[in-house]
Amino acid sequence: NGDYASVIKKFRPECFKPGIILDIMGNKIGEHEGIINFTIGQRKGIGISNDKPLYVVNINAVKNTVIVGDKECLEIKRIKLRKLNILGSKKEFDNIVNIKVRSTGRLLKAKIKLLENFAEVEILDKETGISPGQACVFYFQDKIGDKVLGGGWIDETFNKNLST
Whose CA is closest to 139, among 84, 90, 98? Predict the structure, then answer.
């Protein structure tokens, strides 16, 4: 019927259980009516007033908590990728490459460390809104243009305050 919340309520009723809202230091600053009402990066509808705007920076479904902080807390500095598909040579990854984490997103400069079954990506530009489950594609620019070097699926994200 177009009401996604009713589907989630049927299969994951715990998403509607009231819980607490924490700041990034772990202090309780409010309460919520269910994690279903929040998404990473959300600014409006948190229900807490503060000097500076607050954003949802993490949702812990196991503990039923929502963690909020300022916009800087959303900046992702590193990501871990799984299920890699490498098309370029390993040597091409010795250079700084470009990555894209959404089809309409901008190219971001990054350093890639290829490991046995995963890759560690250090993002050199500022970027927010990167979440596990998204694809990450590697590009290298040469004289001909952009060359796809491969990619993988985001397994974890890391910033200076929190990880997902």
Answer: 98
Contact in structure between 131 and 164 (CB atoms under 8 Å): yes
151 sits in which H/E element: strand 146-158
The pLDDT assigned to 164 comes to 55
Mean pLDDT of the chain: 89
Largest CA distance in the chain: 56
- Torsion 3-8-10-15 (CA) sign: negative
CB 164 within 8 A of CB 157: yes
Taking the complete model, does pTM exceed 0.70, yes or no?
A: yes
Tell me if 141 sits within 8 A of 98, measured CB to CB. yes
Give the separation between CA 59 and CA 35, rounded to whole angstroms.
Answer: 7
Summarize pLDDT for 89-125 with one digit per residue, the tens: 888 899 899 999 988 889 999 999 999 889 999 999 9
Alpha helices in the chain (DSSP H): 4-11
**38-94 confidence digits (pLDDT tens):** 988 899 999 998 999 999 988 888 999 999 999 888 899 999 999 999 997 888 899
Helix, coil or strand: residue 140: strand
